[in-house]
Task: structure prediction
Amino acid sequence: MIRAECLDWTLILGRRHLDLTLRTYAEHYNCGRPHRGLDLATPLVDAEDPLPVSPRDVRRRDLLSGLIHEYYGAAA
Result:
């Protein structure tokens, strides 16, 4: 799965780049990506309850040069 979703779309430039890419993807997969089997929760659930956010207050963070996008609510 990591190959199809990440490595097939990335040109790896060396061992350090591969390690960084795999760490970034694993962190996103386990902490940031919603999972349908867990009612759209992440496997590593935070203790905080989600707060309602206006669409104008949503910010995007690009990971792996834009291959992955994570969205979060901006601080008021």
